TrEMBL record:
PANTHER family linked to this entry: AMINO ACID IMPORT ATP-BINDING PROTEIN, PHOSPHONATES IMPORT ATP-BINDING PROTEIN PHNC
Origin superkingdom: Bacteria
Protein name: Phosphonate ABC transporter ATP-binding protein
Organism: Sinorhizobium mexicanum
Lineage: Bacteria, Pseudomonadati, Pseudomonadota, Alphaproteobacteria, Hyphomicrobiales
Coiled-coil stretches noted in the UniProt entry, renumbered to this chain: none
Keywords (A to Z) from UniProt: ATP-binding, Cell membrane, Membrane, Nucleotide-binding, Translocase, Transport
Gene Ontology cellular component list: membrane
Length: 273
C-alpha cells in the first residue's frame, strides 16, 4: 500500500501540495484530475522523490520513502517508475537502447553509458517492446517514431525497471485520440496483468472514468474528492474545477464529451460529460 500523510510542498508563498493525506491500495489504477496548477504533477514528483516534501511522510510497504538516500533512493525511483508527457527518450538512440536505459538504477550509470547489458536485460527489453506492439521498431531511432509510439517506448522503459508503482504525468496530453487510447489501454493492461499500481494525471474526465478504478480530484494543492467514477457528481466536479453556474456547461446526455481544462490564463469555459 502507498500512503501519503500530511504531505506538503511549498514554493515560496505557494502551497503546490497542501496537507495531502491519501492511501492507494496495491494494484489500483487511480486517475488524478483537476485544473492546471492544482498540484497534480507536483504530487507525483513528490511520490517519486524528484521533488522533496516540505512536510509530511510517504510510506510504501511499511518503509518511510521520505527518509531514503543514496542507492536506496535510486532503487525506490526504479520501483516507482515515472512516465512524462515529454517522453524523456534519447532521440538519436535506437528504441531498444532507450528501453534498456530503464535498467540504470540496477546496472549503474557507467555500465549503462557503456551499454553493457546482460542477455537477461536485453530479453526483458525485447519482451516489453513486444507487449507494447513495438518490436518491429526496436532498431529505429526513437526520434523517428510518432508521439504515440514514443510514449509507448517510455512505458516499455518503465516496465524494465520492474516497478511496483507506475506514475504517469499527463501521458496523453499531446497525443491524438487514437494514440491516446492505445497508451491508456497499455497502462490499464499492465495494471491488470502485472498488478502494478498506477497513478495517472489526466486532463480528460471521460478518460479517467473509462480506465480508472478510483479518482482523486485536486484543487489548489488539496485533495477535494476521492471516490469511484460513478461518485463523481456534477456538484463534486464544480468543487474540483472551481466553477459555478454559467461558468460550467453540463450535458449529461453527451457521455463522450471530455473535460479539458486549459492553462490558467486560457481557462474560460469547460464542458463536462
Amino acid at each position: 500500500m502507498l500512503a501519503l500523510y500530511s504531505l506538503k510542498r511549498t514554493f515560496g508563498s505557494v502551497n503546490a501540495v497542501d496537507d495531502v493525506t491519501v492511501t492507494v491500495d496495491e494494484g489500483q489504477m487511480v486517475g488524478i484530475i483537476g485544473r492546471s496548477g492544482a498540484g497534480k504533477s507536483t504530487l507525483l514528483r513528490l511520490i517519486n522523490r524528484l521533488v522533496e516534501p516540505s512536510n509530511g511522510k510517504i510510506m510504501f510497504g511499511g518503509e518511510d520513502v521520505t527518509r531514503l538516500k543514496g542507492r536506496e533512493l535510486r532503487l525506490w525511483r526504479a520501483s516507482c517508475a515515472m512516465i512524462f508527457q515529454q517522453f524523456n527518450l534519447v532521440e538519436r538512440m535506437d528504441v531498444l537502447t532507450n528501453v534498456l536505459l530503464g535498467r540504470v538504477a540496477h546496472q549503474g550509470l557507467f555500465s549503462t553509458i557503456a551499454r553493457r547489458f546482460s542477455d537477461e536485460e536485453t530479453a526483458m527489453a525485447v519482451q516489453a517492446l513486444h507487449r507494447l506492439d513495438l518490436l518491429p521498431q526496436a532498431m529505429q531511432k526513437a526520434g523517428t517514431l510518432s508521439g504515440g509510439q514514443q510514449q509507448r517506448v517510455a512505458i516499455a522503459k518503465a516496465l524494465v525497471q520492474r516497478p511496483q508503482v507506475m506514475l504517469a504525468d499527463e501521458p496523453i496530453a499531446s497525443l491524438d485520440p487514437a494514440n491516446a487510447t492505445r497508451v491508456m489501454e497499455a497502462l490499464r493492461r499492465i495494471n491488470k496483468e502485472d498488478g502494478i499500481t498506477v497513478l495517472v494525471n489526466l486532463h480528460t474526465l471521460d478518460t479517467a472514468r473509462t480506465y480508472c478504478d478510483r479518482i482523486i480530484g485536486m484543487r489548489a494543492g488539496r485533495v477535494v474528492f476521492e471516490g469511484t467514477p460513478d461518485q463523481l457528481t456534477r456538484e463534486r466536479l464544480k468543487s474540483i474545477y472551481d466553477v459555478e453556474g454559467s461558468d460550467l456547461e453540463l450535458d449529461e446526455s453527451v457521455t463522450s464529451t471530455a473535460l479539458r481544462p486549459q492553462r490558467a490564463d486560457e481557462y474560460r469555459r469547460v464542458s463536462l460529460a
